[in-house]
Amino acid sequence: MKVLLVSPQGSNIYAKMKVGLPPLGVAYLAAVIRENGYKVKIIDRSIEQRPLTVEDFSPFDVIGISADTPRYPEALEIAGAAKKAGKMVIMGGYHVTFLDKEALETGVVDIIVRGEAEEIIINLLNTIENNGDLHKVKGISYIENGELVRTPPAPPPRNLDALPFPARDLLPMDKYSSMMAGLPLVNLITSRGCPFNCYFCSSSKFGGLKWRYRSARSIVDEMEMLYHDDGYRAFAFMDDNFTLSKRRVMNFADELEKRKMNDIIWWCFSRVDILIRNEDMVKRMAESGAFQIFLGLESHNEQTLDDYGKNVGNKEQDQAIALLHKYGINIHGSFIVGDINETEEIAMQTARWVQKVNPRVAQFSILTPYPGTALYNDMKREGRFLHKNWKLYDALHATVKTDGMTPDKIQKILIKDYRMAYLNKYRLFHPRKQSPEITKRLKKLHAKQGGLKSLIKPFKFFVTFWMEMQRTKPKKLIAKMKKQNNEKPLIHIIDNDIPGLDLSIDNKKPHLVNGMIGEDKPSKNGRIQNPFPDDGK
User: Fold this and answer.
1) Angle formed by the axes of helices 436-445 and 279-287, to 10°?
2) Total-model pTM
3) 516-531 pLDDT, tens per residue?
């Protein structure tokens, strides 16, 4: 059996800037599929930006497509083209895990894989090849005799060290452009699952509440392969909870030292509360090459932080920032605009604070209710959705009605936030302290951090970003969408409960449904995450 895995490109600003990292989700799937004797190929649409044709699908028996929320519409287009070619279509990812019924009733998807798919996909492919009983495959959804079938959930992989490394050899690694401190950046995943069950995030629902992690030895084995075989010296750990275990971080630093990998730099996620409790860990991270840490700082308003359920206040956030400054580790700060009760005054309070913090990277996101989150359920219950145009659910566009600001005002604030964060006296006249160890490593690597190029790329990004915001002003966009809906029934529908779908590729009447796995009770804790480690240099 031959399998084609497709990662959609997406339509947000990052895709337009052609800034990205290899899609490790499909690369992990490809690795386990190949390990089990099946032939597999990957098409990453962020690199191969061309329409897929019958010729692309014809050599394969099964087409697998990954679908997070903003890339879901494109995933459906790919699925429609694959069905026209007569292929079986399997779809997985966050969006369809929680809205499986919606995807299946489009008629272009045969089977949904729910949750982490490495073990499910092998059971499923074996069953398909042997004409077995789909009811016996855990973790899938499909339509049978006009009825939705959801088999029992499958447990996620427990021993992450036993998984093969992602099949990067099936990806055009030389085409990915993400950089850190002027060095080509490669991404890794070192843990899964999340015990925090955040209000804005579906990670705990998707991967479970139990934190599962790779050993320090396994992580450095993969790094060493990328170091020697591909020449990478900059690494990004994309899992939410890299620093959850202090002992693992310490062992990781020891493992790097033991293997004499003393000319690398790395980036990871962490949390304010974990950092301020573990200063010795932060010190060791700096010594082992930690160049930058992602922190979800979100806001500088105590009430907003309470609404987000952060369990930390301004005092703790300032302590974490001071700690990273002390050891010369750069900050990638993530901030949210558009909380239900946030006013322009509160948003500007945060913006002015961001200027003083002067993080190396300031990332602003609009509060976005993704399927599978308690936030999504609250917004649905309260009737706050502006639309279900999933392409715009990218944390850069207003998608819900709030009490403090209009949708257009929220998007204007987002532009202003970026302008204030990157064009101010603090950034121009207050250079950040860098640890002596990082300075030594960057000098050894001849990393080029400054220069004209470092100014041009962020400027280009801001211009493209500004143009996208002008094109997608909510008031204008919704009026346009409503007009299109009146003229063409197959265009996205603006409704609080019904997501629209354009199936004009095969002239079928669209099935408009709202499938949801379970309804969570309203909650008030957590945070949104939209990781983007490229510092634009």
Assistant:
1) 20
2) 0.86
3) 222 333 333 333 333 3
